[in-house]
Amino acid sequence: MIKNKFKKLIVLSITSITFVYLSTLLYSMSKMTTDEMVMCSAGDGGFYISSNICEIYMKRFKSDSTNIEELSYGGIEVILNLSSDKKYELAEFFISKGLNVNAINQYQSQFGYDLPPVQSAILDNDLKKVNFLILHGANIMAKSKSTGNLTSLEFAKSLQEKEKNIDRSLIITALSEHEKHITNH
């Protein structure tokens, strides 16, 4: 009899603890900004919630037009600047939901920078990011005041000339090929 009551007490305790944990988890995720939810989904940002749980929650509850608008403030760069390789999967998800690959990162514009995402990727010398953006429709002909109104190819060539110790030849080749492709069509 006592064993039976003890077992019931243990089951009830475990159920209660699980319920409180899950409730707290859901409450915490509901209070996260879209940027924080993206970081959590990628496993970046020091969150104590599994990235898989964050990703499931984000895709179900944090990907409507309001969340896309919130994420648009930092643009695609917020996602592509994450350290996790999951960033490309997350970026594709949000692009499919309407995130603009050409939107200027407003966090940087506060400091006078108006680089399109592809030019930020060029500045970072990140060929994979440049190719990703081109593949997803980045406008390589876009110009910014920060670069002296240079296109992406002109900007890459200018950086190559100024910073001879950083090899941007693969980026220049990729941009050249894409520019030829778009001017011939």
Task: Write the SSE topology.
Layout: H1 2-31, H2 34-42, H3 51-61, H4 65-72, H5 76-80, H6 87-96, H7 106-109, H8 117-123, H9 127-135, H10 152-162, H11 169-183
Protein name: Ankyrin repeat domain-containing protein
Keywords: Membrane, Transmembrane, Transmembrane helix
Transmembrane segments: 9-29
CATH architecture of the domain at 101-185: Alpha Horseshoe
* Major sheet summary line: none
CATH superfamily of the domain at 101-185: Ankyrin repeat-containing domain
Mean of residue pLDDT values: 91
What proportion strand? under 5%
Structural class: mainly alpha
Termini distance?
83 Å
- Count every beta strand, where a strand is a DSSP E run of 2 or more residues: 0
Please identify the top-level CATH class of the domain at 101-185: Mainly Alpha
Radius of gyration: 22 Å
> What is the percent of helical residues?
55-70%
Task: Count every helix, treating DSSP H or I runs of 4 or more residues as helices.
Answer: 11
From N to C, what is the helix and strand string? HHHHHHHHHHH
CATH topology of the domain at 101-185: Serine Threonine Protein Phosphatase 5, Tetratricopeptide repeat
Principal-axis shape:
elongated
Poorly predicted parts: none
